Amino acid sequence: MTARRIFHPTRYEVVTITQGLLQAEVVRTYLRSHGIPAVLRYESAGRALGLTVDGLGEVQVLVPARWGRKARRMLRAREHPRRLPRARRRIQKRS
Fold first, then answer.
1. pTM score, whole prediction
2. pLDDT tens track for 32-62
3. Taking the mean position of all CA atoms in its chain, how far away is CA 32?
């Protein structure tokens, strides 16, 4: 008897929306560096044509639903460095 794998689709949440693929790649890399899986969703026409107007440049950063709260907290901390732990603040001041 062989074991069968049961596929459970993962539900994703949008944690942020950026204007342009470059910003979204930075956010995705930041989340992944903290162990949070992230994927991007965007309109392919905007990327192919290089347009960033009328919603074509909009990129959604998605994470699995169970990581949503942590991802949003990490993004808020990134935007407001005062919310980072003290050790991380000292490292950033030296730079």
1. 0.68
2. 999 999 999 988 766 566 655 666 678 999 9
3. 8
Place of tokens 């990134």: 78
What is the domain range of residue 55?
12-79
Residue 29, domain CATH: 3.30.70
Enter the tokens of residue 23: 């910003």
> Which helix (H) or strand (E) segment is 64 a member of?
strand 58-64
Residue-by-residue DSSP string for 46-62 = HHHHT--STTTTEEEEE
What distance in Å separates the CA atoms of residue 94 and residue 66, rounded to the nearest whole number?
35
Give the residue from 94, 87, 61 showing the smallest Cα distance to 75. 61
> Residue 2: inside a domain, yes or no?
no
